[in-house]
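Sat 14:20. Reprocessing the chain from the morning session after the first attempt stalled halfway. Input below, unchanged.
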Amino acid sequence: MKIGIGLPAMIPSATGSLILEWAKKADASPFSSLAALDRIVFPNHEALTTLAAAAAVTNRIRLITTVLIATIRKPAILAKQAATIDVLSNGRLTLGLGVGSRDSDFTAAPASYHDRGKRMDAQLDLMKKIWSGEAVSDEIGPVGPKPVQKGGPELLLGGRAEAALKRAGRASDGYIGGGSGDPAAVQAAFEIVKSARKEAGKSGEPRLVGTAYYALGPDASAGADYIRQYYPAGPFGESAIKAILDTPERIKDTIKAFEAIGMDEFILWPTISNLDQFDRLVDVVA
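Finished this time. Tokens:
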């Protein structure tokens, strides 16, 4: 199983110079992927812009959104942005997408909220058409640039609802499981993905990517501050705090548990914007 690391771009205290230095260090490290998260109504750095900047200072590591809210973005513009990052990175982009769950992001965008699943289906079809080089319609020509990866970036979908899991099976290359810390729950969701893929007549196994938060060292408790800011008060936020992997032992045990269910890649998101956190994670997973 490959191990990836998230950029600290979601953490409000992260500076531009820190994010770029983090990306450079990741490129020279054992990590397989460099991940970016997405929100609108939050003081984070925008995910696609951040990955474009990371593409300019890296050469090896894959770039991945885990996940990007697709349905607050216009499909043709998102397809063009993704293709551009794929070109800039020489084919290193994996596009992880979700329908989104916070209505505030849709209000701010603005974009309609209650039909987002239906719009996601149409969006994926149009994006794939654009990446293949086809004309958008009889009246409108193709949208470039041509991605380096044939047919467009690797496409993974996230989500917990059954409709989202079935969409991941029939319309993408795999599934991104959220940071619940529960391998059994992720495995159960992935079975739905695999079944939907088979029903759609697609060959090969879908890819499975997992995620979790981490914080290490004497200041590890500070990771909860970011989680409290990111999630509203309540049971979900408290469970997210408890799920932060805050010791080397918890990280190693969690990696083993997810590897045991056949996960292809496991990505660890930082909760503290300090390069010390990067170095500590390298020491654990190297």
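DSSP finds eleven helices and nine strands in the chain.
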